[in-house]
Amino acid sequence: MFDNVDWVELSGSLLLFILVFCMSATVDIKSMKKQLDNRRAICTGIVLQFALLPFLGFLVVNLLQLDHAMGITLLVVTSSPGGSYSNWWCSLFNADMALSVTMTAISTLLSIVALPVNLLLYANHSYDDDVIASLDWVALFSALVIVISAISLGLFTSAKFDSPGFNKLSNKIGNLAGLGLILFSASISSADEDNQLWDHPWTFYVSVATPCVLGVVLANILASFANLSKPERVTVAVECCYQNVGIATSVALTMFKGDELSEAMGVPLFYGICEAVVLGIYCLIAWKLNWTKAPSTDPLCRVITDNYQEFGTDISQLDEAGAEMTFEKESLQKMETATEIDEGEGFT
Fold first, then answer.
1. For 67-136, where are the alpha helices, taking DSSP H only?
2. Could you tell me what percent of the chain has a pLDDT over 70?
3. Best CA proximity match to 287, nearest among 271, 303, 263
4. Which of these, 82, 185, 235, 308, could form a disulfide with 244 (CB 3.0-4.6 Å)?
């Protein structure tokens, strides 16, 4: 009965479902509904996720002439927004958390159409027709079905329970599932002794890391032009480069075999390492520049453990207000001094 079951593929799909379900179940539905009116930030994030990063992936694939196993998987990675751990980074360093959760949900739903469209568009301009014909669209849509069903069920469960305790429990289970998926990907990628993760040519590491690094830089520039608040800029930058590598992992498991599988599995695994390192450094810098809701003067241990989301006004706005108050106070003091001088001259 179970002779024809691919347990490796099934295990990867199960871990992906648990991760996305649990992270979706941590969402506060009321906060998510409020953020739907924040059209400028959401539209900026959508453009960054579905236009900028896939295009960066396309440029890298063509400039470095990547083979089809690595190139197709990288295109899937850069076309798969909705990484649930982006919420964790925004929560940890106190960016706009409600916006992060809303963008994750919206981008994952839009991926149903945008992911295959981007993949078909850029793969068609990067590889021959025989490579395009060999694409396993069933595997791609199967991964999307898993993600969409997990998000839908997670949001429904969160609304049904409406309990902070349930949200925290879901977050913990999701973290374990995420760790399990990382270890699972690492074991598959390292299964071939001749194709270990750290034995690839330099083009592998440059090609996988480049979209992530450029994505953060360009996202900040474009978000600044869009006149988003500083915590919103941090959020859209994190959402832009943090991809759902679980989708690429699931697709690679079903599309490739042998050496190609080991090579393809290394792409989402190394991208996951890159985004963790890049975002960790970026969030620290953003916090020190007062771009988040946590004051840069607070100790780091307090910043990553306390919740600053309820303050409503980000620290940069408080700094601007403080500067205005200081200016007004200095102006008042000058006026009082001038009045005293005039009065003194009047008595002489």
1. 68-78, 85-92, 97-124, 129-133
2. 79
3. 303
4. 82
Average pLDDT value over all residues in the chain: 79
Token representation of residue 78: 């850069």
**Distance separating alpha carbons of residues 140 and 322, to the nearest angstrom:** 52
Phi-psi region of 65 (alpha: psi -120 to 50; beta: other; left: phi over 0): left
CA distance 241 to 246: 14
Neighbours of 315 (CB within 10 A): 22
Position 263 scores a pLDDT of: 84
Q: What CA–CA distance (Å, rounded) separates 265 from 73?
A: 8
Task: Find the angle CA(235)-CA(147)-CA(114) to the nearest 5 degrees.
Answer: 70
Domain boundaries, the chain: 7-310, 313-347
The share of the chain scoring above pLDDT 90, in percent, equals 26
227: left (phi over 0), alpha (psi -120 to 50) or beta: left
What is 7-310's CATH number, 3.90.79.10, 3.90.700.10, 3.30.420.360, 1.20.1530.20? 1.20.1530.20
264 contacts 69 by C-beta, under 8 angstroms: yes
DSSP assignment, residue 199? G
